[in-house]
Amino acid sequence: MFNKIKNFFYPIIIIISFFIILSALYIEHILSIPACRLCLYQRIPYLLSIIICFFGYFFPNYKIWLNLLIITFLCSVIISGYHLGIENNVFAEFSGCTSENLSIVDKKELLENLNNFLPNCKDVNFRIFGLSLATINFVFSIALTIITIRYHYYEKNR
Questions:
Q1: What does the domain layout of the chain look like in residue ranges?
Q2: pTM recorded for the entire structure
Q3: CATH class (in words) of the domain with range 2-93+124-156
Q4: pLDDT by residue (tens digit) across 21-46?
């Protein structure tokens, strides 16, 4: 059974990562719900996972791809966990998360900043089944980390 899984592990991770990125882009651009800075950062590990899985699929003899994939998903857990903590007032927002348009006096600079508006990371603008996107990403990141660690364990012990 494990040999069947081996041929599909990397393509499945690519499909999942691709679906997550497409969903985020759909929510942002089609549904017109702006993404905060941390929402944008949370997409980076999924882009990296697609690249890593591509190399892991075509160069399966090197175990470094699984290690890089585990690190990538752990980073995704940290970023989404931090975002979830900001949404639930566990952590304070970092300076890149807050909108400082109100302190601008110059009209031209204010208009430029309004065109580049990103919502605060604390604000939840979109929910699915009552869960924020940061919460859903946190759960997906943990699941993908566990799946990758488990796959790595089986690869190592075969």
A1: 2-93+124-156
A2: 0.82
A3: mainly alpha
A4: 999 999 989 998 888 888 899 999 99
